[in-house]
Specification:
There is one protein chain. The chain is of the alpha+beta class. Helix content is 16%, strand content 28%. It folds into 2 domains: 1-56, no CATH class; 60-150, Translation factors (Elongation Factor Tu (Ef-tu), domain 3, Beta Barrel). The chain has 4 helices and 7 strands; from the N terminus they run ααββαββββαβ. A hairpin with a 2-residue loop joins strand 5 and strand 6 (124-130). 21% of the residues are buried.
Length: 158
């Protein structure tokens, strides 16, 4: 069975090696059961190679506020989350494309959401999340502000 990092190719791991499942820092790829990459806004590979972190802060206009969340009664790992979203940001999201949501104060957690698992209307973004990881559950519960952005398809070199 091939091990795949749960942060691969997300904002939480921008390194090109993640797409190859060959990250030099990823504990998942080293066979461990938990992530301890300690990524904090820069590419772990570039830091490893050049010892010069490259910080990429999210845009402020993509900030959203968690209004509420609830756990489904018969599915303890499934949550529905409601976010208040500025109209400009809401209108910029294409409902046919996946999005990612990241807690404002936690660079280690990124929620990647497929189009079928979110809806947007009247300034509210509703998201269905299935969380298996304790770190993700804690980030969702403890953070009020998040960043949202549309995920871009991966480019393929020929």
């Amino acid at each position: 069975m091939e091990i795949q990092c749960n942060q691969m190719a997300s904002n939480a791991c921008p390194c090109a090696l993640s797409a190859l499942n060959n990250c030099v820092m990823c504990s998942h790829l080293k066979g461990e059961n938990f992530c301890n990459c300690n990524w904090n806004g820069h590419c772990v590979f570039l830091e490893y190679k050049f010892q010069q972190p490259k910080v990429t802060p999210p845009s402020q206009h993509n900030q959203i506020k968690k209004a509420s969340f609830a756990t489904l009664a018969n599915q303890p790992n499934t949550h529905i989350v409601y976010f208040l979203v500025p109209k400009r940001t809401l209108n910029s999201l294409d409902p046919t494309k996946p999005i990612s949501i990241q807690p404002q104060n936690n660079d280690l957690v990124v929620f990647n959401i497929a189009p079928k698992n979110y809806s947007k209307d009247n300034g509210i973004l509703s998201i269905l999340l299935s969380l298996q990881d304790q770190r993700e559950k804690q980030a969702l519960a403890e953070n009020k502000y998040f960043y949202v952005k549309e995920k871009k398809p991966k480019e393929i070199d020929l």
